[in-house]
Amino acid sequence: MTEIRTVCVYCGSGPGTNPSFIESAKALGKVFAENGVRLVYGGGSIGMMGAVAKAVLDHGGEVTGIIPDFLVKKEVMMPLKDLIVTPDMHERKRLMFEHSDAFVALPGGIGTLEELVEQLTWKQLGRHAKPVLMANIDGFWEPLFSLLAHMRETEFIRPGFQIELLKAERVEDILPRLREAAAGVAREETEMAPDIAKRL
Protein backbone atom coordinates (compact mmCIF):
# COMPACT_ATOMS: atom_id res chain seq x y z
CA MET A 1 0.00 0.00 0.00
CA THR A 2 1.26 3.47 -0.94
CA GLU A 3 0.65 6.33 1.46
CA ILE A 4 0.01 9.80 0.04
CA ARG A 5 2.46 12.04 1.87
CA THR A 6 3.46 14.41 -0.93
CA VAL A 7 1.44 15.60 -3.93
CA CYS A 8 2.77 17.43 -6.96
CA VAL A 9 0.35 20.05 -8.27
CA TYR A 10 0.59 21.28 -11.86
CA CYS A 11 -1.22 24.56 -12.50
CA GLY A 12 -1.01 27.91 -14.23
CA SER A 13 1.31 30.78 -13.41
CA GLY A 14 -1.67 33.03 -14.17
CA PRO A 15 -5.05 33.23 -12.40
CA GLY A 16 -7.30 32.44 -15.36
CA THR A 17 -10.59 34.21 -16.03
CA ASN A 18 -12.80 32.22 -13.67
CA PRO A 19 -12.60 33.12 -9.94
CA SER A 20 -13.34 29.47 -9.17
CA PHE A 21 -9.89 28.52 -10.41
CA ILE A 22 -7.98 30.57 -7.81
CA GLU A 23 -10.48 29.59 -5.11
CA SER A 24 -9.91 25.92 -5.91
CA ALA A 25 -6.15 26.38 -5.63
CA LYS A 26 -6.53 28.04 -2.22
CA ALA A 27 -8.95 25.35 -1.04
CA LEU A 28 -6.63 22.55 -2.15
CA GLY A 29 -3.70 24.12 -0.32
CA LYS A 30 -5.77 24.28 2.84
CA VAL A 31 -6.79 20.61 2.48
CA PHE A 32 -3.17 19.53 2.06
CA ALA A 33 -2.01 21.47 5.12
CA GLU A 34 -4.83 20.17 7.31
CA ASN A 35 -4.08 16.58 6.26
CA GLY A 36 -0.31 16.75 6.64
CA VAL A 37 0.33 16.41 2.90
CA ARG A 38 3.38 18.24 1.56
CA LEU A 39 2.90 20.23 -1.64
CA VAL A 40 5.43 19.83 -4.44
CA TYR A 41 5.04 22.44 -7.17
CA GLY A 42 6.82 24.70 -9.63
CA GLY A 43 8.15 27.26 -7.17
CA GLY A 44 6.36 30.38 -8.43
CA SER A 45 4.56 32.97 -6.31
CA ILE A 46 2.00 34.24 -8.81
CA GLY A 47 -1.23 32.95 -10.34
CA MET A 48 -2.56 29.52 -9.47
CA MET A 49 0.91 28.38 -8.40
CA GLY A 50 1.25 31.14 -5.84
CA ALA A 51 -2.30 30.65 -4.57
CA VAL A 52 -1.93 26.95 -3.78
CA ALA A 53 1.50 27.36 -2.17
CA LYS A 54 0.50 30.35 -0.04
CA ALA A 55 -2.60 28.52 1.15
CA VAL A 56 -0.52 25.54 2.29
CA LEU A 57 1.89 27.82 4.16
CA ASP A 58 -0.89 29.97 5.63
CA HIS A 59 -2.44 26.86 7.19
CA GLY A 60 0.81 25.52 8.63
CA GLY A 61 1.67 23.04 5.89
CA GLU A 62 4.92 22.21 4.10
CA VAL A 63 5.92 23.13 0.55
CA THR A 64 8.73 22.07 -1.78
CA GLY A 65 9.26 24.36 -4.76
CA ILE A 66 11.24 23.17 -7.79
CA ILE A 67 12.05 25.77 -10.43
CA PRO A 68 14.53 25.99 -13.32
CA ASP A 69 16.98 28.87 -13.10
CA PHE A 70 15.68 30.64 -16.22
CA LEU A 71 12.20 30.94 -14.68
CA VAL A 72 13.34 32.33 -11.31
CA LYS A 73 12.49 35.92 -12.27
CA LYS A 74 9.75 35.24 -14.82
CA GLU A 75 7.56 33.27 -12.41
CA VAL A 76 8.62 35.36 -9.38
CA MET A 77 10.15 32.63 -7.24
CA MET A 78 8.49 31.99 -3.88
CA PRO A 79 10.85 32.43 -0.89
CA LEU A 80 10.65 28.93 0.57
CA LYS A 81 12.71 26.99 3.10
CA ASP A 82 12.65 24.01 0.74
CA LEU A 83 13.41 25.43 -2.69
CA ILE A 84 15.31 23.59 -5.41
CA VAL A 85 16.67 25.50 -8.43
CA THR A 86 17.48 23.24 -11.37
CA PRO A 87 19.58 23.87 -14.50
CA ASP A 88 16.76 22.93 -16.89
CA MET A 89 13.15 21.80 -17.24
CA HIS A 90 14.01 18.11 -17.55
CA GLU A 91 15.77 18.07 -14.19
CA ARG A 92 12.86 19.99 -12.68
CA LYS A 93 10.32 17.43 -13.87
CA ARG A 94 12.47 14.49 -12.80
CA LEU A 95 12.80 15.89 -9.27
CA MET A 96 9.09 16.70 -9.11
CA PHE A 97 8.41 13.07 -9.95
CA GLU A 98 10.88 11.73 -7.39
CA HIS A 99 9.55 13.98 -4.60
CA SER A 100 5.86 13.11 -5.15
CA ASP A 101 3.50 10.26 -4.33
CA ALA A 102 0.74 11.53 -6.65
CA PHE A 103 -0.03 14.27 -9.17
CA VAL A 104 -2.91 16.73 -9.53
CA ALA A 105 -3.56 19.00 -12.50
CA LEU A 106 -5.50 22.15 -11.68
CA PRO A 107 -6.45 24.53 -14.50
CA GLY A 108 -3.47 25.90 -16.39
CA GLY A 109 -1.91 26.46 -19.78
CA ILE A 110 0.44 24.65 -22.14
CA GLY A 111 3.05 23.97 -19.45
CA THR A 112 0.45 22.42 -17.17
CA LEU A 113 -0.87 20.30 -20.03
CA GLU A 114 2.63 19.17 -21.00
CA GLU A 115 3.49 18.10 -17.44
CA LEU A 116 0.17 16.29 -17.03
CA VAL A 117 0.44 14.43 -20.33
CA GLU A 118 4.02 13.42 -19.58
CA GLN A 119 2.93 11.73 -16.35
CA LEU A 120 0.07 10.01 -18.15
CA THR A 121 2.52 8.82 -20.83
CA TRP A 122 4.99 7.46 -18.27
CA LYS A 123 2.11 5.68 -16.56
CA GLN A 124 0.82 4.24 -19.84
CA LEU A 125 4.30 2.91 -20.60
CA GLY A 126 4.45 1.21 -17.21
CA ARG A 127 7.18 3.44 -15.78
CA HIS A 128 5.18 4.20 -12.61
CA ALA A 129 1.81 3.57 -10.94
CA LYS A 130 1.41 6.83 -9.02
CA PRO A 131 -2.10 8.34 -9.13
CA VAL A 132 -2.62 11.18 -11.62
CA LEU A 133 -5.78 13.24 -11.15
CA MET A 134 -7.34 16.06 -13.16
CA ALA A 135 -9.18 18.61 -11.04
CA ASN A 136 -12.03 19.39 -13.42
CA ILE A 137 -12.95 22.73 -11.87
CA ASP A 138 -16.04 24.13 -13.63
CA GLY A 139 -15.45 21.64 -16.45
CA PHE A 140 -12.00 23.00 -17.32
CA TRP A 141 -10.60 19.64 -18.51
CA GLU A 142 -13.68 18.52 -20.49
CA PRO A 143 -12.06 19.27 -23.89
CA LEU A 144 -9.13 17.01 -22.93
CA PHE A 145 -11.48 14.23 -21.82
CA SER A 146 -13.21 14.49 -25.21
CA LEU A 147 -9.87 14.31 -27.03
CA LEU A 148 -8.80 11.24 -25.05
CA ALA A 149 -12.14 9.58 -25.82
CA HIS A 150 -11.58 10.36 -29.51
CA MET A 151 -8.11 8.79 -29.31
CA ARG A 152 -9.64 5.63 -27.84
CA GLU A 153 -12.39 5.52 -30.48
CA THR A 154 -9.84 5.85 -33.29
CA GLU A 155 -7.61 3.25 -31.55
CA PHE A 156 -4.58 5.47 -31.08
CA ILE A 157 -5.07 4.52 -27.45
CA ARG A 158 -5.45 0.80 -28.00
CA PRO A 159 -6.98 -1.80 -25.68
CA GLY A 160 -4.35 -2.78 -23.17
CA PHE A 161 -2.80 0.70 -23.21
CA GLN A 162 -5.62 2.51 -21.49
CA ILE A 163 -4.92 3.97 -18.08
CA GLU A 164 -7.20 4.94 -15.25
CA LEU A 165 -8.10 8.61 -15.56
CA LEU A 166 -8.83 10.06 -12.15
CA LYS A 167 -10.90 13.21 -12.01
CA ALA A 168 -12.67 15.30 -9.43
CA GLU A 169 -15.07 18.19 -9.87
CA ARG A 170 -14.79 19.25 -6.22
CA VAL A 171 -11.63 20.03 -4.29
CA GLU A 172 -12.80 18.04 -1.29
CA ASP A 173 -12.87 14.86 -3.42
CA ILE A 174 -9.26 15.14 -4.62
CA LEU A 175 -7.33 13.73 -1.66
CA PRO A 176 -9.80 10.87 -0.96
CA ARG A 177 -9.60 9.78 -4.61
CA LEU A 178 -5.82 9.90 -4.61
CA ARG A 179 -5.73 7.81 -1.42
CA GLU A 180 -8.22 5.31 -2.81
CA ALA A 181 -6.21 4.94 -6.02
CA ALA A 182 -2.95 4.51 -4.10
CA ALA A 183 -4.36 1.99 -1.61
CA GLY A 184 -3.81 -1.03 -3.81
CA VAL A 185 -0.45 0.00 -5.24
CA ALA A 186 2.77 -1.39 -3.82
CA ARG A 187 5.49 1.16 -3.06
CA GLU A 188 7.91 -0.44 -5.55
CA GLU A 189 5.39 0.09 -8.37
CA THR A 190 5.48 3.85 -7.83
CA GLU A 191 9.24 4.18 -8.11
CA MET A 192 11.31 4.74 -11.21
CA ALA A 193 14.98 3.84 -11.34
CA PRO A 194 17.10 7.02 -11.49
CA ASP A 195 18.91 5.89 -14.63
CA ILE A 196 15.57 5.38 -16.39
CA ALA A 197 14.28 8.79 -15.27
CA LYS A 198 17.38 10.47 -16.65
CA ARG A 199 16.83 8.85 -20.05
CA LEU A 200 13.16 9.79 -20.39
Labels describing this entry:
alpha/beta; seven-stranded parallel beta sheet; 42% helix; globular
Describe the structure in your own words:
With 200 residues, the chain is α/β, with parallel strands linked by helices. 42% of the residues lie in helices and 15% in strands. It is built from eight helices and seven strands. The protein has a seven-stranded parallel β-sheet, sandwiched between helices. Helix 1 runs parallel beside helix 2 (47-58). The radius of gyration is 16 Å and the shape is globular. The mean pLDDT is 90.
Strand proportion:
15-25%
- Tally of DSSP β-strands: 7
End-to-end distance: 26 Å
Percent helix? 40-55%
**What is the element string, with H for helices and E for strands?**
EHEHEEHEHEHEHHH
Residue windows where pLDDT falls under 50 for at least 5 positions:
none
CA-atom Rg in angstroms: 16 Å
Strand order of the largest sheet: 4-3-2-1-5-6-7
**Secondary-structure-derived class:** alpha/beta
Overall pLDDT, averaged?
A: 90
User: How many helices?
Assistant: 8
For the report, how would you describe the main beta sheet?
Answer: 7 strands, parallel
Shape: globular
